[in-house]
Amino acid sequence: MPGLSVQGDPDTTNSESRASRRSERRAVLCEPLVTAVCSDEEAFTALELDWGELLSVAQTSGCFLSFQWMRTWWDFYRLENPQSRLFILTCRDAGGRMVGILPLFEKTVRFAGMRLRALRLIGNDFDAPDHLDAIVAEQESDLIAGHLLSGVLRHAQGIDLLLLADVADQSVLRSVLPSWCGRQAMRFSAVRKTTCPYVEIAASFSEYLGSLSSSHRYNVRRRGRKLEAQHNVGFEVASRPAEVNRALETLFDLHHKRWAQLEASSKFATRAVADFHRAVSANLAQNEMIRVFILMCDERPVAALYGFVFGNRFSYYQAGFDPDFEGKSVGVVLLARILEYCTANGYAEFDFLRGLDDYKLRWTRKARPTWNCHVAITRRGAAFVGLQALKCSVKSCLRLARQIIRPPRS
Fold first, then answer.
1. Which residue has the higher pLDDT, 267 or 156?
2. Stretch 358-380: mean pLDDT
3. Whole-prediction pTM
4. Nearest alpha-carbon partner for 156 in 63, 38, 44
5. Is 392 buried (19+), middle (13-18) or exposed (0-12) by CB count in 10 A?
6. Sequence-separated (6 or more) residues with CB below 8 Å from residue 127
7. Hey, what CATH topology would domain 202-347 get?
8. The domain 18-195+369-398 is classified under which CATH number: 3.40.640.10, 3.40.630.30, 3.40.50.720, 3.40.109.10?
9. What 8-state DSSP symbol labels residue 409?
10. What average pLDDT does this structure show over 38-52?
């Protein structure tokens, strides 16, 4: 699967200015770097400004690494897990400028009758997102990441292992951890977690449609024309706080209806999950980092899709539709409208996030993996990492065996 293409410096000033700032950052980074630990909510709040500035020039960026997402996630997670504690590593240069953040929290895991102390990335658990990483300045990213990891060893007394899930494919952590662990004589494993299909947005929507299979291209156009012939079709986009609040409730309602028809529980059925998304969407909407798209038929909402914007990338998080309109392919019509919107608004990418669902692969053949990266700090941690690696190897062998012995299709 192709990996994430490297994007340029997001700053829009001229190249001379960018080169000057990078030169300055390079010189400053030759000076000693200082790591520290943020372990309480007040200190976490105080990081907001530095966090945002660093993320804008980080090697890996995205909505799920934003202060708004991570702080809201932590507030909800700690309500159900009061025994967990923050362990956010920060790295500043000689001038006091923030150049690295490793957003972790501590959680106890059980293994072979033992209780192991693990550090995980904020977001690794409840409603886990994709494409996580350390947040480090693009210039000298490996050097900064190495300082952050070494800071874990200095500050985390009694920690057995790092359990870093949903790590981005082209991430600084995945790049640095193998060699860093080798120098520390620590056991390391990286196992593919999931796969995220994505669309590279073309210069025009018609050009993008031309890249699809002829059957899907025909279906997209036919379904759109048929729905417009039968109904007064509208398309709404919510991005501001008040709009997002109303649109999100519409999405919840459509999602509940769809899953009730299937006699299953909606993702938003639990109050904690729904309240988290209400809170995080309100926080992200302050910076217009969220979109809720709604397809209307005769002024009735029939399909909705909820996702996040960071830079020129849109990440599709969840959708719902009215089961009364299932036969009219309102999901297909809505996705086509959204992809056309992304093209018109200069987005470079539409990320479907995790899962190789058939409907996603009708829109694209490009995908990238996410990874689980495990680092053993103690002997007990090494036993845990070794067993997890063995389990993954057995699963891989079983999958291969099934492919070999599977009878050919008639």
1. 156
2. 95
3. 0.86
4. 38
5. middle
6. 73, 273, 276, 277
7. Aminopeptidase (3.40.630)
8. 3.40.630.30
9. P
10. 96
